[in-house]
Design brief:
By secondary structure, the protein is α/β, with parallel strands linked by helices. It folds into two domains: about 5-70, Alpha-Beta Plaits (2-Layer Sandwich), CATH 3.30.70; about 90-335, TIM Barrel. The protein is about 35% helix and about 20% strand. It contains eleven helices and 14 strands. Strands 13-12-11-10-9-8-7-14 form an eight-stranded parallel β-sheet. Strands 2-3-1-4 form a four-stranded antiparallel β-sheet. A two-stranded antiparallel sheet has the order 5-6. β8 (about 130), α4 and β9 (about 165-170) form a beta-alpha-beta unit. It is elongated, with a radius of gyration of 21 Å. The structure holds phosphoenolpyruvate (PEP) and manganese (II) ion (MN). The site of phosphoenolpyruvate has 9 residues, from loops.
Amino acid sequence: MEGATVLVVMQQGAAETEVQAVVAAVEARGLKAHAIPGSERTAIGVTGNRGAVEASAFESLPGVLEVIRVTHAYKLVSREAKAEDTVVDVGGVKVGGNRLVVVAGPCAVESLEQTLAVAEGVKAAGGHLLRGGAYKPRTSPYSFQGLGEEGLKILAQAREKTGLPVVTEAVDLESLDLVEEYADAIQIGARNMQNFSLLRRAGRARKPVLLKRGMSATLEEFLMSAEYILSEGNYQVILCERGVRTFSDFSRNTLDLAVVPAVKRLSHLPILVDPSHGTGRREKVRPLSRAAVAVGADGLLVEVHNDPDRALSDGPQSITPEMFASLIGELSQIAPVLGREL
Ligand code: PEP
Ligand code: MN
């Protein structure tokens, strides 16, 4: 199979020198080695091959338990590569652990006053991460495009004030450089899910990446996009379901909650659900948030605005800080039923 590769699984307690010897043997064949440490054992993913990888070359090396052929198109994101769940650290906040994580904030950073008002509301309600776009991918070129670097500076000020780490979107290579500098995590939006040069660049970033599902992406395409990021060496990836386009006409998108258990089965990466873009309507955020937690999401991404009716972007789907506080209160009661904390 073209591109099929192998995973070299080390014995439990294999020495670091043995791991390094496998890495060297992989590299000596002109291939790329990705050592993926797990709590039980280390696995080494092999990529960069054109034809089949010769498993026997690695089987007899000291410390090697077995060599598994990876048959999925995606390799490093697969459960085969890493059995246990990945926990991503965003500025000290753990995403993917037992505790649910709520990312909240305005669609767009509009001003310092607006961002601080929302950030303080999010913080007071118990939100964990602040979001807000400084670069907005808008359908119309005449719509508000975001404040750019000034917006990133505002987010950094809001982080300083509230202590909330910041997640914000990069829309191209140029903005990614700046987002990497200012933010705690880099968001890649639905419209850029298959912007492969941007994904590769995000894979070389020193910050975690929040990757949103494309609006018509299959599960395999979604995971392959994450694979681009991991293949460049950045294993800190958080997935986010934000709704897909269907014939259904009562909501902006159709929130595909069934993708959550599907991702959990195939991949070790954490997945959040975005009920705001997923529905497009403020009153649907609460019921779909409940459902997202029930279905096993690792957290939520919610748009919150202090004056939603005057928001420059996505007002109809933004909830107020008061509604957000009430939502968090409700979710903190639902979470324990599912064996999770909030
Ligand atoms: C956003 O998070 O504001 C956004 C633009 O989302 P998406 O890429 O999912 O449309
Ligand atoms: Mn938005």
